[in-house]
Amino acid sequence: MSNIVDELVQDYIRSTLKESKTFLRELEEYADKNLVPIVHKEVAQLLKVLLKIHKPKKILEVGCAIGYSSMLFADTLDKNCEIITVERNEKMIEKAKENLKKYGFEDNIKILEGDAEEKLKEVEGSFDMIFLDAAKGQYKLFYDLVIDKLKTGGLLVSDNILYKGMVASDKYVIRRKKTIVKRMRSYLDYISNCDYLDTSLISIGDGVALSYKKY
């Protein structure tokens, strides 16, 4: 139970989803078995719809893990895109590279290896979409490093923004997570009130923020 929505509602929403493609299902099974965090199934479906509408050509992702989201993006866009993703965990990088090769996405997805704070400074060019799915207490830091790289009319997607309900209510907060929760609340307050963004917070999965860059 994520504390985001009622478990019965969550189960119903998931029951409506089509079965994932074979390679995505294999990645989902690996992630479940090895406790690797990937986007929730209902969030993956939301992302697919957004991609079909927005049709981004260049995507920047912060937090690659085993490459699930990046490959979901590339597959949804029929590989008609360029994706740069950042990851610092060496085991995740090794597995992601293996997956990119295995499933034929090496030409579409480039992994920047190292700490996001340093690697994002090296990224050049502009992007149609940016996906934040890394350290939850560092979202504002990542935002400051990438927002100027997002085109006007671009989409910023921030995942896990309700953090098992802790961001929404103190009754869910675990003491050792207080700093992360405080920082995430500050981040959400910022992007919700920023003049050049239109932001919507959505209570599916572990919470998703969608931000449209107006100028």
UniProtKB/TrEMBL annotation:
Any GO MF annotation of the entry: S-adenosylmethionine-dependent methyltransferase activity
GO biological process, one term: tRNA methylation
Membrane-crossing residue ranges in chain numbering: none
Keywords: Magnesium, Metal-binding, Methyltransferase, S-adenosyl-L-methionine, Transferase, tRNA processing
Residue positions binding Mg(2+): D133, D159, N160
Subunit structure: Homodimer.
Chain's role: Catalyzes the methylation of 5-hydroxyuridine (ho5U) to form 5-methoxyuridine (mo5U) at position 34 in tRNAs.
Catalytic activity: 5-hydroxyuridine(34) in tRNA + S-adenosyl-L-methionine = 5-methoxyuridine(34) in tRNA + S-adenosyl-L-homocysteine + H(+)
Pfam families listed in its UniProt record: Methyltransf_3 (PF01596)
Organism taxonomic ancestry: Bacteria, Bacillati, Bacillota, Clostridia, Peptostreptococcales
Family assignment from sequence similarity: Belongs to the class I-like SAM-binding methyltransferase superfamily. Cation-dependent O-methyltransferase family.
UniProt-annotated binding residues for S-adenosyl-L-methionine: V39, S69, E87, D115, A116, D133
EC number of the protein: 2.1.1.-
KW Metal-binding (keyword) present: yes
Protein name from the UniProt record: tRNA 5-hydroxyuridine methyltransferase
InterPro entries in UniProt: Cation-dep_OMT, SAM-dependent_MTases_sf, SAM_O-MeTrfase, TrmR_methyltr
